Amino acid sequence: xxxxxxxxxxDTASGPVQKPSLPIKNQGAILGVxxxxxxxxxxxxxxxxxxxxxxxxxxxxxxxxxxxxxxxxVMTDCINxxxxxxxxxxxxxxxxxxxxxxxxxxxHRFRINFFFQRNHLSGxxxxxxxxxxxxxxxxLPSFLKKLVELPNGLVLITGATGTGKTTTLSALISYMNHHxxxxxxxxxxxxxxxxxxxxxxxxxxxxxxxxxxxxxxxxVALREDPDVIVVEEIRDLETVAMALTAxxxxxxxxxxxxxxxxxxxxxRIIDIFPxxxxxxxxxxxxxxxxxxxxxxxxxxKDGQGRVAIFETMPVTTPIRNLIRDGQTVQIYNIMQxxxxxxMILLNxxxxxxxxxxxxxxxxxxxxxxxxxxxxxxxxxxx
Length: 382
Hints:
Strand content: 15-25%
Largest sheet: 7 strands, antiparallel
Structural class: alpha/beta
Number of strands: 14
Strand order of the largest sheet: 1-5-6-7-2-3-4
CATH architecture of the largest domain: 3-Layer(aba) Sandwich
CATH topology of the largest domain: Rossmann fold
CATH class of the largest domain: Alpha Beta
Mean pLDDT: 91
Low-confidence stretches: 1-20
Radius of gyration: 22 Å
Number of helices: 15
Shape: globular
């Protein structure tokens, strides 16, 4: 395996990346660690000088004793394996860099962040299957199938870091690729899942390699004849403003945000803007927002990985009115009483998984937004 070429996402060359002229003594061993991570169903691998490689398995960190403690030489070999010369210069100047790589004979791709800590180079590798997941594999709410067929509007996928938002986006893109006839533009930093054209034309743009920023790429995307625009992360006011404009002007925009639930998501978007613009943004959001889906990953009770749990909020006329009037806190009441319309609060969704014996009450307790709710539900079950 140590003699095989590496494929680095973002290269303009049509074939494998040429091996760097720098010697790579530990290439075979490093690839062996990554192979072991795949076999152990790890979601992440951490390389830190002085420690064994660390696998994150079902949310828990576990040292991999099959490889000796990482050295500076190993980390140098890592960047020589996975970074081009320009990327190595960027790392030296900025002290951090993101990239994605594909490796021959691997069933997974790797999103990599190299960074410095205590003046030593470290690496965090995120594992993603090469084949995009299906709705059924990750248990996505079925009503999302109707949402991705909409001609326009804004759909938000939210959750903390590491809760599977990118995986959910990939499943949505894959579903559209099989069931729609559309031009889909994706904006990523970096690209984690690669999609091949089927029924759709898919243009995947990576920040820095293909575009300078999310906001600029989103602005230009409106001139590229898109039907669907997927923004993997909304980070700033300019990107939010462009996403709202795109959703209002006849495009379906699907984006992610680092928020915990639907109401918090709405408030976060509005609060990004200065006070004198917030009423206008409420009106825009009320008219363009189609749904918010918030998700978490919780360890399964049987020890077989983690299960995705979703809060779903399709936007109805009463919710639009509350957004427009700045009464978002009342949305919780609407969601509690409109299960028939596909709404479910995260607390209720977690409680269902506890009742179905999928997750344990102990693991569930740390994910409830309202701990009083959890305690009351447990009392009612006794």
